[in-house]
Amino acid sequence: MVEEQDGVRKIFLGLDPGSKGGLAAITPSVVLAVSCASMSLQDLWDWVKQWSQEPTLLLNDEEGEVFLKTERVEVYALLERVGGFITREEGEARHRGSPMFNFGRTYGHLEMALTAAGIKFHTMTPLVWQKHINLEPRQAEKVDRKKVYTETQREWKNRLKAYAQTLFPTVKVTLGTCDALILAELCRRTYQQLSEEEDPGTRRITERPKDKKKRRAAARKRKRSGKKRMEQKEGE
Fold it and tell me: Which of 63, 94, 95, 177 has most Cβ atoms within 10 angstroms of its Cβ?
């Protein structure tokens, strides 16, 4: 499942900084997932740092002599990028406040831990990474030109959990770790693109062309609206 070339072990991490988020790692020998909901700063740092350390093995050569061998490892990580809003449990109303502050704080902690550990990482919004998995999007409909979810947040999370379980049938998947496991798997599939990026952690990767076009079109629209407002003010 995990490539190992020229004696280099590749490890892929998925990090979901949500209030009920999780951390996941795919190694050549095992897949691990833990909840980070109750982790302290030290716990977060210890979990991230362990993957950047190159293990030293005690081996015997053909003549029975004991020697030490340090395994080379390459670690790649995909961190879910947070935005300015979060969705309530019922999946419809949005709000600012302390939940978003705590969400962003955990994101910052993980970002700094990855940087301090020297791990190559990139960030990806939920909207982007969820488009790259083989799963039908969260069900919604337009009401008065507004998007209203017809599928509750819990129903959507259960579908993500079921999808993650199909990816890792031998791993115990929970609602808290499913996103992290999917992120780790997406990291594994795209790590070559991750390694080619010049500035890890600062740009979105693997965006589909239509995503980029939408973003650019929205930027042009905002620019035109701003110019129009300025012209109206000048005319007054």
Answer: 177
**Which ranges in 91-176 belong to alpha helices (H)?**
98-117, 126-129, 153-167
Residue 111 to residue 229: CA distance in whole angstroms: 38
Helix or strand or coil: residue 166? helix
**H or E element, residue 186:** helix 178-196
The DSSP bridge partners found for residue 122 are 78
Q: Of 184, 192, 36, 203, which is closest to residue 110 (Cα–Cα)?
A: 36
Q: How many residues does the chain have?
A: 236
d(C-alpha 74, C-alpha 2), whole Å: 12
Tens digit of each residue's pLDDT, the chain (236 residues): 455 555 678 999 999 997 789 999 999 889 999 999 889 999 999 999 999 876 655 555 555 555 455 668 889 999 998 765 555 544 444 555 555 556 668 888 999 999 999 998 999 888 888 888 878 888 888 888 788 888 888 898 999 999 999 999 999 999 999 999 999 999 998 887 655 554 444 444 444 445 667 777 777 877 777 777 777 767 66
0.90 surpassed by pTM: no
H-type alpha helices, the chain: 41-52, 98-117, 126-129, 153-167, 178-196, 209-235
C-alpha torsion sign, points 119, 125, 129, 130? positive
